[in-house]
Write a structure and sequence with these properties.
The chain has six domains: 78 residues, no CATH class; 261 residues, Glycoside hydrolase 38, N terminal domain (7-stranded beta/alpha barrel); 97 residues, Up-down Bundle (Substrate Binding Domain Of Dnak, Chain:A, Domain 2); 134 residues, Immunoglobulin-like; 227 residues, Golgi alpha-mannosidase II, domain 4 (Beta-galactosidase, Chain A, domain 5, Distorted Sandwich); 83 residues, Immunoglobulin-like, CATH 2.60.40. Helix content is 26%, strand content 29%. It has 19 helices and 46 strands. The strands form nine sheets. Strands 24-25-26-27-36-33-32-29-30 form a nine-stranded antiparallel beta sheet. A six-stranded antiparallel beta sheet has the order 23-22-28-35-34-31. Strands 1, 2, 3, 8 and 9 form a five-stranded parallel beta sheet that branches. A hairpin with a 5-residue loop joins strand 19 and strand 20. The chain starts with a helix and ends with a strand.
Length: 935
């Protein structure tokens, strides 16, 4: 036997403490020799032969032989202890993974109680814990324990490693969400523990399923210097990770795992790892995890004991901070990595679609509500709503946990996430309504004559009403409500608000409650007296004792601004607007075409898109049938590390084009006006049904699909995992697909599996210099291959949640034609609705129309929020060109401005002024935050 075979044989025959102690040191001595060109092999061989001889004589390794072996190896003690093993105790606590929230509370309290006991018992022991959510649980449910933890933190025995509220997903959360994780987590620990912002430097993400390319940019802006992860890469273990902006973080990728127990060979790879990376120390993260627990008494006792062994690594109870500070001294020697760290568990981009819908609804609702509040606070004497939005954000951030948003939990996981959404929407409604009311009270409407009708029945109508705005992506999901009506009489005042950075001209649907005049004589004017085109929708109806008429009008609203509409009874009838109340006079059949002055879309009888022509270039963008649904069945017997098909997509066993293989019934068609044309159709397949409306608005290049699925397909062992997909083959060649990620986009080659996008996918046609963009309001699972985009709308996995998708689902899909610099404009206007509020006639300080803020085309705005100190507002934006350069933000007021970081502290970033314009120079894909204070 060679020397290594002898050591392996001896370890196999080692029983009892002394034998294991000796053979463990023997193996470590060999590792020391190995990294020194085997210069100590003679010593190692001599010690091994002592044990072999004893084993041959006695049939086991005796205590005396073990002692003799250790004495021989002790000459290598100095060499052995050149390497330090920094042991970091940790408890991986999954939020609501395979259990409900009450159990998450229980395991958090029990784990922390155990750790405090261990800290009291072992003075050398230290403990590190991530996730602000766990500390918040203790604060809420056991305040006495919370005080004990605070004391241990002050003593330096308990290391806070939380810079995010939870160990969250990095692929499906918006850039703004990821920034808020840092903001609210650092604020929490400063307020509760007195930890300065600059003392929290680590983003600890051991189990996160992949990492987007903008993470270093986000972390740098939040004062985070270091990153710890396990998944998403198989290359370097220590490296500098750089974003396109040049922002960089120092990264340690765990070479082993974060859920480990202390074994005697714990230092086995320490010498070779250290030699490879030019270091002399390494962290080892230990502690029972997932369901909490942390290190055991045996773990601690073993480390204390092993630290006394002469031929073993130096062992310290340590912290992440000291290790990363050490690595910082050698940072220039480590390689640099650029780009995203993906992909792993691609099934998680589609699993548990309701949770994903909840996340998008929460993020989008917070965005619009915060924008309205910031503007109202600055310009309309509105009041801040900071505490309410903070509570809403905390609940949203909790749902970002890497087993909640990715959909790898159970039924109770989903139920808790959806309950949190309803609370979030309660906060955002309260903040949004307060802000809109503040605007309504501040806008001078005295020039509009309205009736003071004491017998009016309209005041208070629509209270809590939801869903009348059928094509509005936020309302169609059924959980956002409208603000109560305040107007009355035959003249009604509406203010329409735009919370995006783009001027918008589009169709808007809104109700008129309890109108006492003649509907057929309605007319709509803007503040300048211009006629506003509109039509009266089919239907209408009532809500409790009130009645309403739904109007679709074509409006133009400036960026971050509002307009005023006056709805009143005119002098003549407008028959085209009430055509839908007639009974048909003639039966006729039409081609299925949606056309305006921008595009023409043709559908066949199965409602597949067979032609899409961009009138700007006269280019046909569709080659084969497109815009169709399919159902496929995926393999559930997966040759992977997990049998849970919530995590992993199986390969497709079979697939059916639903439009072609099942009867398609067109139930309604409207192409008789130029404001909104649409076709409604239904398809029944298997045990399920799709109801879809595809529409085209005036002045738009976007086909909007409103999709309602009554889904009853479930897993069977014979057929596998059923999934509902939407396909968009296009008629030009591409070799890359561009997807939205946090604060930017990423270009990817074709993949035969789903990839994540937080809003859109786009491809560019070089011949026409135009792009095709595919947008969604709640879907994250995109796929680009073979000149085709597809979306996974529903995927009925069955492990760990047996029936994750059974029931009703809704989503919105947009297929648009645009220029390359318009992706974010199209996505934002697709996802963020125009809001409206009614008003009465009164004096005020604001005009009937206004635009408060506008921006250059080369940036996108991710947030407009009241500053945390409530002394101004924050605008966060990012470069969308990938080239950087000068950008401007125009603020139509007298103001002061300062560049700030994510924590809203001033930073050394040059900001200049050109009148009302703020000028900034941005690096490629850089984010910028400005604090604006009005004079």
């Amino acid at each position: 036997m060679n020397i290594f075979d002898k050591i392996t044989y001896l370890q196999e025959k080692s029983h009892g403490y002394h034998a294991i102690r000796a053979t463990t040191q023997l193996r470590y001595a060999y590792r020391i020799s190995e990294v020194n060109d085997f210069k100590y092999n003679d010593i190692v061989l001599k010690a091994a032969d002592v044990l072999l001889g004893d084993l041959n004589i006695n049939g086991s390794i005796t205590k005396n032989a073990a002692k003799e072996c250790e004495d021989i190896l002790s000459v290598l003690s100095e060499e052995a202890k050149k390497y330090t093993m920094i042991c970091i105790a940790h408890a991986h606590i999954d939020m609501n993974w395979m259990w409900s929230y009450n159990e998450t509370v229980a395991i958090t309290l029990d784990t922390f109680r155990t750790m405090l006991k261990m800290l009291r018992e072992y003075p050398q022991f230290t403990f590190s814990q991530s996730q602000a959510s766990t500390y918040k649980i203790v604060e809420k449910h056991d305040p006495e324990m919370f005080e004990e933890i605070k004391e241990m933190v002050k003593m330096g025995r308990w290391e806070v490693t939380a810079s995010t509220w939870v160990e969250g997903d990095k692929n499906m959360t918006s850039g703004e969400s990821q920034a808020r994780h840092i903001l609210y987590t650092k604020k929490y620990f400063k307020e509760k523990f007195g930890i300065p912002f600059d003392s929290i430097l680590l983003d600890y993400e051991p189990d996160t399923f992949g990492h987007n390319a903008q993470v270093p940019e986000i972390l740098e802006k939040g004062g985070i210097k270091y990153y710890y992860h396990c998944r998403g890469s198989e290359s370097h273990c220590i490296y500098n990770w750089k974003s396109p902006s040049g922002a960089s973080v120092l990264v340690f990728r765990e070479p082993d795992w974060y859920n480990t127990i202390i074994t005697y060979d714990y230092a086995d790879y320490l010498p070779s790892f250290c030699k490879k990376h030019g270091i002399d120390r390494l962290i080892r993260v230990y502690g029972v995890g997932d369901h909490g627990g942390g290190p055991t008494r045996r773990d601690i006792e073993r480390l204390i004991d092993m630290s006394t062994w002469p031929c073993y690594a130096k062992i310290e109870f340590g912290s992440y901070r000291t290790f990363f500070e050490y690595l910082e001294t050698k940072r220039d020697s480590f390689p640099t990595v650029e780009g995203e760290l993906n992909f792993v568990f691609t099934g998680c981009y589609s699993s548990e679609s309701r949770i994903k819908m909840a996340n998008r609804m929460a993020e989008d609702s917070l965005n619009t509500a915060e924008t309205l509040t910031a503007l109202a606070n600055a310009f309309a004497n509105g009041k801040p709503y900071t505490k309410g939005y903070t509570k809403a954000w905390i609940k949203t951030l909790f749902n970002h946990f890497h087993d909640i948003l990715p959909g790898s939990g159970i039924r109770e996981t989903r139920e808790h996430a959806l309950a949190y959404l309803q609370e979030v929407l309660g906060y955002t409604y309260a903040g949004r309504s307060k802000s809109l009311i503040a605007f309504a009270e501040s806008i001078d409407t005295s020039s509009i004559k309205t009736e003071d009708d004491k017998e009016s029945f309209a005041d208070g109508a629509g209270m809590g009403f939801k869903g009348v705005t059928e094509h509005n992506s936020a309302l169609v999901r059924g959980l956002e409500t409208q603000i109560v009506n305040t107007g009355c009489g035959k003249t009604r005042i509406f203010h329409i608000f735009n919370t995006t950075a783009y001027d918008r001209s589009e169709a808007l649907e809104f109700p008129i409650w309890d109108y006492p005049g003649k509907i057929e004589k309605l007319e709509i004017k803007d503040a300048d007296g211009n006629d506003i085109p509109f039509y009266i929708n089919k239907g209408g109806g009532g809500f409790w004792a009130h009645t309403c008429v739904n109007i679709t009008a074509f409006v133009t609203v400036p960026a971050f601004g509002y307009i005023t509409l006056i709805v009143k009874e005119g002098k003549s009838k407008h028959l085209p607007y009430i055509m839908y109340f007639w009974n048909p006079r003639v039966e006729y059949y039409q081609d299925f075409v949606l056309e305006n002055d921008k595009i023409v879309a043709r559908f066949d009888r199965s409602m597949q898109l067979v032609s899409l022509i961009d009138k700007k270039t006269n280019k046909e963008l569709i080659k084969d049938k497109s815009g169709f649904f399919s159902i496929c069945w995926q393999n559930h017997k997966l040759p992977t590390v997990t049998t849970g098909n919530a995590w992993v997509e199986g390969y497709v066993l079979k697939e059916q084009n639903i439009n072609e293989n099942y009867p398609v019934f067109v139930t309604e068609m409207n192409n008789g006006n130029d404001i909104r044309k649409y076709i409604c159709y239904e398809i029944e397949f298997g045990k399920s049904k799709i109801s879809a409306t595809v529409s085209l608005d005036r002045n738009s290049t976007v086909l909007k699909y409103k999709v309602d699925a009554d889904w009853h397909e479930i897993f069977t062992s014979e057929e596998g995992i059923p999934a509902l997909k939407f396909h968009l083959p296009f008629g030009f060649e591409v070799n890359e697909y561009e997807y939205e990620i946090a604060f930017g986009t990423v270009k990817r080659s074709a993949h035969n599996h789903d990839v994540p996008s937080i809003g859109f996918g786009a491809v560019h046609d070089k011949e026409s210099n135009r792009s095709l963009i595919l947008m969604t309001d709640s879907i994250y699972a995109y796929r680009g291959e073979n000149n085709t985009f597809s979306l996974t709308l529903l995927r009925a996995s069955q492990s760990p949640d047996r029936y994750p998708e059974y029931g009703m689902h809704s989503c919105n899909i947009g297929v648009g034609i645009c220029d390359k610099d318009e992706y974010f404009r199209y996505s934002d206007t697709f996802n963020y609705p125009l809001y409206f509020i009614t008003n009465t006639s009164h004096k005020g300080s604001l005009p009937l129309k206004n635009s408060f803020i506008s921006t250059s085309k080369n940036i996108a705005v991710s947030a407009l929020k009241t500053s945390e100190d409530e002394s101004g507002f924050i605008i966060r934006a990012f470069d969308i060109t990938g080239d950087g350069g000068e950008a401007f933000i125009q603020i139509n007021a007298d103001f002061e401005v300062t560049a700030v970081d994510t924590l809203e502290r001033p930073i050394d970033k040059e900001v200049s002024r050109d009148g009302s314009r703020v000028l900034v120079n941005l690096r490629p894909c850089e984010t910028i935050a400005l604090k604006v204070t009005l004079n």
